[in-house]
Each structure stands twice: as structure tokens, then as C-alpha cells.
UniProtKB/TrEMBL annotation:
<keyword id="KW-0689">Ribosomal protein</keyword>
<dbReference type="Pfam" id="PF00829">
    <property type="entry name" value="Ribosomal_L21p"/>
</dbReference>
<comment type="similarity">
    <text>Belongs to the bacterial ribosomal protein bL21 family.</text>
</comment>
<dbReference type="GO" id="GO:0019843">
    <property type="term" value="F:rRNA binding"/>
</dbReference>
<feature type="compositionally biased region" description="Low complexity">
    <location>
        <begin position="159"/>
        <end position="170"/>
    </location>
</feature>
<protein>
    <recommendedName>
        <fullName>Large ribosomal subunit protein bL21</fullName>
    </recommendedName>
</protein>
<dbReference type="GO" id="GO:0006412">
    <property type="term" value="P:translation"/>
</dbReference>
<keyword id="KW-0687">Ribonucleoprotein</keyword>
<dbReference type="GO" id="GO:0005737">
    <property type="term" value="C:cytoplasm"/>
</dbReference>
<keyword id="KW-0699">rRNA-binding</keyword>
<dbReference type="InterPro" id="IPR036164">
    <property type="entry name" value="bL21-like_sf"/>
</dbReference>
<dbReference type="GO" id="GO:0005840">
    <property type="term" value="C:ribosome"/>
</dbReference>
<comment type="function">
    <text>This protein binds to 23S rRNA in the presence of protein L20.</text>
</comment>
<dbReference type="InterPro" id="IPR028909">
    <property type="entry name" value="bL21-like"/>
</dbReference>
<dbReference type="InterPro" id="IPR001787">
    <property type="entry name" value="Ribosomal_bL21"/>
</dbReference>
<dbReference type="GO" id="GO:0003735">
    <property type="term" value="F:structural constituent of ribosome"/>
</dbReference>
<feature type="region of interest" description="Disordered">
    <location>
        <begin position="145"/>
        <end position="170"/>
    </location>
</feature>
């Protein structure tokens, strides 16, 4: 069973168990999010289209993390005038795991385990750096070990050469 939902001005086709990245939503990691604006429900050949939404249909999801997305560079130039400007932007986004789709007297649930480990830690583990590569503490799933804070490195002071006494001085 699948559904088409609307959030953040965009439409998404989802089914139970999908990992979904949407515009930023309020909430803490692990909290439940319900989408009541279901535009369409479908199961095989049977499709229910709402006018504009399907009555009584709801999609439930668990919020995994809120993070910044990929960098977008904005470059402006006027030729032969010496005008160049570079700006950047990173949109905030929310990662969700769809847990159930219900409506039209039917319901599809996902029975898997939701892992709340953020992408920053997963990327560090994939590079073989472990959790110590993350310089700040991030709340992770209860089954995972807590992240240790990285200790700052101390710079060694340069050694000064002792002044040797000259022959005439005592």
C-alpha cells in the first residue's frame, strides 16, 4: 500500500518503511509525525484519489534527524566589469522513517527497528574514523554507545637556546 502526501509545498509517494527527506519539520529525534494531507492512496490496481484529500487517511512517520542539506553555490558575474560574487546556501531538512499508511479501511505497518544514528556518525564510521571523529556529542539510539568528545591537541612551546657566556664575562 502506498500514499501520496503533501508537505513543504512538495508531493511525495511513500509506503511503510520508506526513508524520506523533506523540508524542515519541528520536533525532536524519535518523535512521531502524522501527515493528514494525503492526496492519494493506492494498492495494486485499486487507487483512491482525494478531492483534494482522502478523508480519514493518515501517514505516520518517526523523525530521525534534522540536518543541513547539500551546499548550493550562487555565482554572479558581469563580464568585463570586474564584478564577481560567490555566495552559498545549505537548506535545513528533516529525515523521516515512514512507519504506517492507513486509510480507506486498510492499514500497512512497518515492523522494523528505527535507528536514530545521524548521518554524520554513519559517514565517519564508513571512513573508518569511528564515533571519535565527531567533535561534539549527538544523541544517538539507546543501543549505541555514547559519543566521546574529542580532546583538543596542545601545541608544544618552542625551546629557547640558552645564551652561552662569552669569554670575557664571568
Amino acid at each position: 500500500m502506498y500514499a501520496v502526501i503533501k508537505t513543504g509545498g512538495k508531493q511525495y509517494r511513500v509506503q511503510a518503511g520508506d526513508l524520506l527527506v523533506v523540508e524542515k519539520l519541528d520536533g525532536e529525534p524519535g518523535s512521531e509525525v502524522a501527515f493528514g494531507e494525503v492526496l492519494m492512496l493506492g494498492e495494486g490496481e485499486a487507487v483512491t484519489v482525494g478531492a483534494p484529500v482522502v478523508d480519514g487517511a493518515v501517514v505516520n512517520a518517526t523523525l530521525i534527524e534534522t540536518r543541513k542539506g547539500e551546499k548550493v553555490k550562487i555565482f554572479k558575474k558581469i563580464r568585463r566589469q570586474g564584478y564577481r560574487r560567490t555566495r552559498g546556501h545549505r537548506q535545513t531538512e528533516t529525515v523521516l522513517r515512514v512507519t504506517s499508511v492507513a486509510g480507506a479501511g486498510k492499514e500497512a505497518k512497518w515492523d522494523g527497528v528505527i535507528d536514530l544514528t545521524p548521518k554524520v556518525i554513519l559517514n565517519a564510521r564508513a571512513r573508518g574514523l569511528g564515533d571519535a571523529a565527531v567533535p561534539f556529542t549527538i544523541p544517538v539510539a539507546k543501543s549505541a554507545a555514547p559519543v566521546a568528545e574529542a580532546a583538543p591537541k596542545k601545541k608544544a612551546a618552542p625551546k629557547k637556546a640558552a645564551a652561552a657566556p662569552e669569554d670575557g664575562e664571568a
